[in-house]
From TrEMBL, chain A:
Residue stretches making up the ABC transporter domain: 13-248, 278-508
Species this protein is from: Magnetospirillum molischianum DSM 120
Protein name: Putative ABC transporter (Protein fusion consisting of two ATP-binding domains and permease)
Record keyword Cytoplasm present: no
One Pfam short name: ABC2_membrane_3
GO CC field: membrane
Localization, UniProt: Membrane
GO terms of molecular function: ABC-type transporter activity; ATP binding; ATP hydrolysis activity
Lineage, opening ranks: Bacteria, Pseudomonadati, Pseudomonadota, Alphaproteobacteria, Rhodospirillales
Membrane topology category: Multi-pass membrane protein
EC number, UniProt record: 3.6.3.-
SUPFAM superfamilies, alphabetized: P-loop containing nucleoside triphosphate hydrolases
From TrEMBL, chain B:
Species: Magnetospirillum molischianum DSM 120
PROSITE patterns the record matches: ABC_TM2
A GO term, aspect molecular function: ABC-type transporter activity
Chain ranges of the ABC transmembrane type-2 domain: 129-369
Membrane spanning residue stretches: 23-43, 175-199, 220-244, 256-280, 287-306, 348-366
Assigned keywords, A-Z: Cell membrane, Membrane, Transmembrane, Transmembrane helix, Transport
GO CC terms of this entry: plasma membrane
Main location, first listed in the record: membrane
Record protein name field: Putative ABC transporter (Permease protein)
Keyword Transmembrane helix: yes
Amino acid sequence: MTPPAIAAEAMAIRLVEVSLRYGKNLALDRVSLALPLGRITGLIGPDGVGKSTLFNLVVGARAVQDGQVEVLGGDIADPRHRIAICPRIAFMPQGLGRNLYATLSVVENMDFFARLFGQDRAERESRIDDLLASTGLLPFRDRPAGKLSGGMKQKLGLCCALIHDPDLLILDEPTTGVDPLSRVQFWDLVERIRAVRPGMSVVVATAYMEEAERFDSLVAINAGRVIATGTPQELLDRTGAATLEDAFIALMPEEQRRRHHAVMIQPRTVDSTVEVVIEAKGLTVRFGDFTAVDQVDFRIERGEIFGFLGSNGCGKTTTMKLLTGLLSASAGEARLFGRRVATVDMAMRRRVGYMTQGFSLYSELTVAQNLTLHAQLFGVSAAEVPGRVAEMADRFELAAEIESLPDTLPLGVRQRLSLAVAMVHKPELLILDEPTSGVDPIARDMFWQMMVDLSRNDLVTIFISTHFMNEAERCDRISLMHAGRVLVCDSPAGVIAGRGAASLEEAFIDYLTEAGGAETSGAKAPVEIVPPPATPAPVWRGFSPRRMWSYTRREGLELRRDPIRGTLALFGTVILMLIMGYGISLDVENIRFAVLDHDGTSLSRDYATTLSGSRYFSEQPPIADYADLDRRMASGELGLAIEIPPGFGRDIDRGMPVEVAAWFDGAMPQRGETIQSYVRAMHVSWLSETALRRSGTRPFFSPVEVEIRFRYNPEIVSIVAMVPALIPILLLMIPAMLTSLSVVREKELGSIVNLYVTPVTRAEFLIGKQIPYVLLGMVNFVLLTLLVTVVFGVQLTGSLAFLTVAAFLFILSATAIGLVMSTFMRSQIAAIFGTTIGTIVPAIQYAGLINPVSSLEGGGAIIGRIFPATYFLIISRGTFSKALGFVELWPSLLPIVASIVVLMTLCILLLKKQEG
Amino acid sequence: MSSFATIARLGVKELRSLASDRIMLVLILYVFSLGIYVAATVMPETLHNAPIAIIDEDASPLSARIASAFYPPHFQRPEMISLARLDPGLDEGTYTFILDIPPDFQSDLLAGRRPSVQLNVDANRVSQAFTGSAYIQAMVVQEVTTFLRRDRPAPPAPVDLVLRARYNPTLTESWFGAVMEIINNVTMLSIILTGAALIRERERGTIEHLLAMPVSPFEIMAAKIWSMGLVVLLAASCSLLIMARGVLGIPIAGSIPLFLFGAALNIFATTALGILIGTIARSMQQFGIVMILILIPLQVLSGGLTARDSMPELVQDLMMLAPTTHFVILAQSILYRGAGFDVVWSQLLGLFVIGAGFFSVTLWYFRKAMTNMA
């Protein structure tokens, strides 16, 4: 296909020979096309053929590998052009509300995007009000995005995309998973906006061929290639097909097309003995005060194909979970095969096959392994398993892919595999939750043929949910669900007749409009959209505090919406401080010792009494013999064993040399050293006391006196030394852990795309995210300081102001460690693991908590020297017990500041403003 | 199909999942190899490289002799400083010890006036301060005594004390550090592997797929415990044999199979704990915080960092509920002191009871959470 020769400036998007690979997979194969300005263009084709990839390239979310991508008159690979046009593009990624934030309200979501585009307060407010009014979302302005229905989520997504008056609007499957009425409303809204802004170009990807008919032009894509372009009429004319769906099939390559057969549905033979397989009576589920399923009734007979329609969030999935026993009903009852559904009914589960939304296959297992595992789990006998797997592979045409991993397979094949997996134990009932979403028409027809065969030949009952009207028409009976209630339940023809409508879609829209009430009322009274100002404000390319603040506000709001996390973070540190402050004690006390006394004179008992009289030792029952000594030391019962030789008293009296033997437990070396010095000191003191008693004079055993002055902590109390040192450790671990998920979570959930396609810079994004955690950290610092001074009674003798400044810098550094982990790691688990390894171990062992860093060796010493906690520990101890301030301690600030610079630079380098 | 077979199959699936996560494998390898090595070698002995300075106001042969008595590895080479540097030297944390030898020290000594030297100690560094000052005191006395006796040996004290350390005669810190680090890793890893992996499965919805099959929550939990427990146990065994015994040359006194049996019981308890946290926490973010709140007390207060005897009674009693406390006692008894089953049976029993308790509570909670998934 050669692109039409039109001058580049008239084009919104121009692709020349663009190819893109994900590893070995070729996602786009030398695609060339040109989309003119001011039009609405549809990209049609099944999921996984490269539509989303193409969009990601156009909006700059993914780096161009091969070929040239021109957007709005410039090369998108040129960073300057990308930054310049970024505010003129709006992108709504695939997936319901994928770039929205579920815990934020409608208004807060819009406000977030408005700030990213640098709008001031007045502008933000007027735009938000306009958009809310015109989309009918105004009554729900304070509802969290996660609690909106599928249709409303998409409207909100559109509002967020339109907040900055883009010249190019890119919508990736905006209506997938949305009920027919909301779909109509959505397109009306797009039309109205285009009427006001005729210059705006719109590119839409869709899997609904019915929708594609209303677009100006279409681009049909299959397997990474453009297979046709033209107006809808042109495509119909070229293929001579009646519908776009048929036209698309006709355009597909011969080899794929050959596999297509129109679905043949034999009429159901109903015999006189009707067996009811599923029966629901007054089924109701409530989550808190939200009623997800409201008084649902239906009866489904054996061998029937029962279609279940309705928008996302209307209760379909919940109903299916009830039937599979994953949920229990709040009221009413459901019966399968005449038996009440219970959550623990293994026998019933064996008769049911369930296919969840999004194909829950194990991606790490091959096709054969997936089939085998499921067969085994469903209790197919070991002898039968290989045969059954082969049978399924044959029946669902999987033999060629039997050793592949599911992720490498096209969606259509994966979905066949899912069905095979659900069928491997030959269930009598199949419950299928949107099995065909995003699957191409040919694969969908194959899939339906299989289901029809199962129903008609094997009398398998099929309970299926779908969004496609042509699929609904193939069902024996259908029911339409809305806001937890079943609106209608009849045969497709009956539904159409009942409303006197021309098509099933029309009938449904009619039902939904009638039932809609408040949720959709806003759209009935369209408000005129205020035309935007002629010249959009230029983007500030440098660091923008407003964009940064947008991320700060958002992260802060999310933290506020999850009070458990914030509370844990604050009270958790307090609890940890109490536990560790009282628990970690380097004071060696109550050493359990016992004596093996071979002498038994008053003098030998006196020796033991010297020890037991001290608070450091506590005496245990005497040792009987060497075996006893060994056993009691081995079990750890005794830390010290003393053996007094026979004739101890007599030999001393005679002035003969005497040896007392003492064994102590060296398993904990630190403690061993302390015991050793205690025993030595006790021994000397006993000698001197004994001599005093005998001769009346106290002999000096040394000619010199060593006066020891224990500074800062004269009683050598652990608490005084330990508690101020715990502040750095806690201020490191909690803020680092909180931030460690902030970036990687957006990567896993998909909202990271907002970084790619909005003008926000990497620094604004990272610092913006960091701020709420720094503030939380400062609150932590205040709590900890209060705890140390008030509860533990350790006085702050130095400068509080200096300590506070240092704490602030240190928390910046700690959160930067979390951010580095978060940008480097790809999964949340790895980020948690990495942060734990990177903070707990160095903080407790290498930062000087117990041994000063200067005494460490090897790798630990290096870690200790570059670890910011080491320096804040010096500052914390210095200000608490050494009465120091800025003058003495400023050099310790330098490494902390350096660490912030290094870590944040590293973060910015690790974070990509584009994928790929 | 029997429950046993289901548990086995699901466990193999868990192992395959872990095997496909390369970063996790690298991190696990790191903590059990290099991580152990660094932790073990960081402090070769209790008093190591202690920073010391000497203020020599006497400048006599004796004061020079005292100064030359301090050398590595116990002490750093002493720095000779002026009196004015005394306070700043301690304030900045440059030195832990500053020994001040007064003017006329040698002449006073020879005149029999029993002069004194002053040892200033930064008592914030509790452990070093304590052990080190005893060392320094003994060294000064010894140097002065031998100086006075012109290098002839001193007469024996009337009663001699022969002190010997058992189980670790040279009080080598690396023996202790390495084994405690392995124990800490066992706890951390078993909580993360089970708990975080459970949250990931919940976030991706694969758990409910399993629950729609004839698989019970008990089977899911048991599968996770055996598979992840096996990974941790294998890693710990290799680490003990290859790193601790091989590379670091730590002699292991007791029976390794007995120790591993204890480790398995401990892992049984900690993996169950991990699943409990993973069930209670609603998101990975909450999990991270809860994990820290549980992991730190487990590591710090179980007796692996400082001795249990010195902790307050209440803490000691509460920590008896933690599996790691029993495991640390058991590990020290077996590995260092060569204790056998007759000695450690009570710890084994304790571990088993705690593990069974955690498992039951977790199962109850997990079942409740899983049968009402939204």
